[in-house]
Amino acid sequence: MFKRSKFVVISVLAVFTLFALVACAEEVENPFGTTTPVPEADSSAPDAGEPAASGPDIANGESKFKGLGCSGCHSTGQNKLVGPGLAGINAKGDDYIRTSIIDPSAVILDGFSDLMPKTFGDALKDDDMDDLVAYLNTLN
Ligand code: HEC
User: Fold this and answer.
1) Is 137 in the pocket of ligand 1 (CB under 6 A)?
2) To the nearest whole percent, how much of the chain has pLDDT over 70?
């Protein structure tokens, strides 16, 4: 008698344990089920992003050149205004051009004064700086 009732108690505990495990398994399954659509949305994101990451936007560089007032001091030909004409500036290289824009006092050209504003480095976002340098490289 005693042994039998002990067996019943153990059986009941075993059944409850089984239910608890099944319940846990179902709870875990649901969150995974709801996250399944997310990777699908993610997989379309790189497709949308990749074309945008291709090369500098020279038209944007030109609009920065005009919008920031570079064109007030620099012609895109050989003629001097307040600063030198920028035709052929590509011969001096990207690093020189960037430094000239970010830190104009680093090099003061013969025959010119240190009149170029020092604020363009802060005013230009990285992408816009890349576009502006790419535009300047097209000037001949
Ligand atoms: C207020 C007038 C002024 C403005 C505005 C100005 N610059 Fe200048 N810039 C100068 C002067 C003057 C020089 C020459 C003196 C020197 O080297 O700093 C110069 C030099 C340069 C040089 C070096 C040229 C060379 O042949 O070595 C570059 C490149 C340049 N500027 C680009 C720009 C760009 C890009 C902008 C707009 C973001 C700009 N400048 C705005 C006056 C200006």
Assistant:
1) no
2) 62
